[in-house]
Amino acid sequence: MAAKAKAWFGEGFRPVPVAAWEWFLMRLGFALVAFFDFANRQPFQYSGQPVPVGLAKWIDLTWLNQPWAYPVFVTLAGVGLLSYVSGYGLVVSLPALTLLHTLMRTYENSQGSIHHSHHMITLVLLVQSVVVVTLRLRTRKRSELFDDSGELSERSWLLYYTQGAVAATYVIAALSKAINSKLMWVWNSPYVAFDFVKAQRQQYYKLLDPQFAGETVAAEWVLAHPMLARIGFGGAFFLELFALVALKNRPWAFWTGLAIIGLHCGITWIMHLRFINNEMVLLIFFVNLPWWVWRFASRRDRIPALS
Q: Into how many domains does the chain fold?
């Protein structure tokens, strides 16, 4: 058993060759998701930062409420994302985009209620910034021209570390559940039913939509079937805990990404909490449908495909 486990972990868990067209489609998809997030006016509508978090503890971000702030941010984000899609100037555009997104979302989270639905965009921008800058510094230190023509190009490392960072967020979520509950989270998971009620009532008071004023069917089912609930929630817990298996190879990334998207869909259905940015990032960098379409098409045409 130990030998099999060693062999399993010994294969994969390293960057894979990524085609130029494949990475272009990923950049394009992520740029569209990021632009819609940048174009959101909500963070710029607050007149103060009553409960500062992060950078707002040291920097006054109330200038983001000025009339000029939103159009400037959107324009800079658009230029930066065009640079990102083109693949040129990444050493400047990626850190700039990371800073812009961090500032606007930090200001939004300094209003007394923290929103987690935008963090994934910042994370991807930050990780890819670190990868690009690190690779550039290494090649400059060696006095070499950056060579992107090898089997493991810059895009291979960008995809690998993007997947790793995203998967790590789910591992951290699972570990925090385990630590804070003293390893009793799965057993105590039926009590999550009370969070279902809370989430539904919050939606009602936020939207005044009558559909959220009625009974909480999911919560009642969980309380009526605690063992089945533990099995279901336990599966979700271990899916998060072992999310890093997505780094093994493309099939593992595909199925892990698909499973976590399914988890988010379940959360949306039960708790009415949508994490669309998480789902889109998983769809782009994990599921990666264009590559699989190409893979099956190349097999049909007997054209060798990337592993």
A: 2
Summarize pLDDT for 275-284 with one digit per residue, the tens. Answer: 999 999 999 9
Is residue 219 assigned to a domain? yes
Give the global pTM: 0.91
Ordered DSSP codes for the chain: -HHHHHHHHHS--S-----HHHHHHHHHHHHHHHHHHHT--GGGS-S--SS--GGGGTS--GGGGSTTHHHHHHHHHHHHHHHHHHTSSHHHHHHHHHHHHHHHHHHHGGGSS---TTHHHHHHHHHHHHHHHHHHHHHHHTT------SSS-HHHHHHHHHHHHHHHHHHHHHHHHHHHTTT-HHHHGGGGHHHHHHHHHHHHHHH--GGGSS--HHHHHHHH-HHHHHHHHHHHHHHHHTGGGGGS-HHHHHHHHHHHHHHHHHHHHHH----HHHHHHHIIIII-HHHHHHHHHHHHTT-----
Same domain, 130 and 252: no
Let me know whether 295 and 192 are in one domain. yes
- Range of the structural domain that residue 271 is part of: 169-307
